[in-house]
Amino acid sequence: MSSMGSVARLELRRLLVRPLAWVLAALTLAQLAWRFVLLLGNFLDNQVKLAGTPGAPGYTDLVGIPLLGSTLTMGILPFGLTELALLVVPLLTMSTLAGDRANGTLPLLASSGTSPAAIVLGKYFAVLLWLLGWLALTVAMPLSLAHGTHMDSGKLAATVLGLALTLAALGAIGVACSAFASLPAVAATASLTLGLALFTANLAAQKAGVGNGVWNWLSLSTHLEALLRGLVSSADLVWFALVIVIALALAIRRVATDKERG
Amino acid sequence: MTLPHPLLKLDQVRRHRAGRPAVERLSLTLDRGQILGLLGVNGAGKSTTLAMIAGALKPDEGRIELDGQDFATHPALARGLLGWLPERAPHWPELTVLEHLQAHARLRGLRAGGLKQACESTIERLELAPLLRRLAGVLSQGQRQRLGLACALLHKPRLLVLDEPANALDPVQVAALRKVIREEAAAGAAVILSTHLLAETTAVCDRVAILHEGRLRHDAALDGDHAALEHTFFEIAMNGKDQAA
């Protein structure tokens, strides 16, 4: 446990001193803030019309949730946090293990008596902490107006849970890709491709009008969509847990075989 | 009093790398307080041997024992017992020298007061104070070697594994390195250092092993006769002759 904590602390420090993490955070939060302002403006413009419509969507449906995801919520603007995560997570995770391998520092970690599981999990938790901070800053935008609006806190909580699980799953996939790649750029490309494939696996099935089946089950968007609607089901939570566990188990296995491969 | 087992024991260790045998049936032991120089031409298998001893590589066959315990089944032994300076002293370029020392100390299980004390004494011993706030990525190769050595020494290991430690060091730094190695051995640590410089071996080691094409060709106490060692080394390197003592 302590060696995993030491690896997590080291990785978090490396994340915080590299310009990439700060640039990514600044650019994406600026984009999300601009998106929040536009969504809020649109909500205010339509407030009179919405007030006269029984059962009309409110602040949470028209501002809070679309800020976090656009494809699934059919928001008026592209690139919510979900879509940005598909790009940000690979960039953030690409160096976790591939960078250490390229630097020659991965054998140093192994020779300090740190197990492959502690190395992988330590790095994963450091990345996850950064991603959750990023999510918290984004969620703070709609929450900043909570005192003046009627917020559906249950629905927003389900959405935040869905986003946290999405970030955790994409982070695990990114760390696994970094474990298998010899160079960070290869890890980022593989992670981006896998993330997009997982996100859009059900597109063809949906276009064909198929609402269930293996492609829908495989797709990340199927499980995230339910959470964005405020529906928390154990089947969706298990799907996210499975993806995270499988990705991290593969990463641990790959790091363990480094001693054999040399 | 004689201890029941050597600090390090390699028994019939084999390892392939890049499809060819890098180390072939290597057996040797190292006791506390000994300084073993591992000599060999480039590609002789020195770095592979040291990486296996450090736990960064697994032998294909054979057994490595640290303090009487099988290293393969007790990899965590490395944490407190072993310090390793790999060739080219790998580092995290975005971290400062101080951050490196702290990270390595934490990885070795040091915390709070112990960590602070270990860092302070190592900084003083290796004269790293002027470099503490510098990023490792901008250090010269010699400075990086010193940082790598500091990271290997931080937790007072009982087995110090040094791969080409004198690389890129100036003569003053080489003298300081030799002093540190002798001090470690005097304090009871076993030191194994690889080099292809004969002078480095005769200056600091009390025993020398020569590897050639992955095989141990010579293993004997060093009697200070530089010319004899040079003769043996070239006999092995040029003609591949066995000179096992």
UniProtKB/TrEMBL annotation, chain A:
Keyword Transmembrane among UniProt keywords: yes
Organism: Dyella marensis
Transmembrane segments: 20-44, 64-92, 127-146, 158-181, 187-205, 226-252
Coiled coil: none
Keywords of the record: Membrane, Transmembrane, Transmembrane helix
Protein name: ABC-2 type transport system permease protein
Signal peptide: none
Superkingdom of origin organism: Bacteria
UniProtKB/TrEMBL annotation, chain B:
Keyword ATP-binding: yes
InterPro entries: AAA+_ATPase, ABC_transporter-like_ATP-bd, ABC_transporter-like_CS, P-loop_NTPase
Domain ABC transporter: 8-238
Keywords assigned: ATP-binding, Nucleotide-binding, Transport
GO molecular function: ATP binding; ATP hydrolysis activity
SUPFAM superfamilies, sorted: P-loop containing nucleoside triphosphate hydrolases
Family to which the UniProt record says this protein belongs: Belongs to the ABC transporter superfamily.
Family matches, as PANTHER family: ABC TRANSPORTER, ATP-BINDING PROTEIN
Listed name of the protein: ABC-2 type transport system ATP-binding protein
Top-level taxonomy: Bacteria, Pseudomonadati, Pseudomonadota, Gammaproteobacteria, Lysobacterales
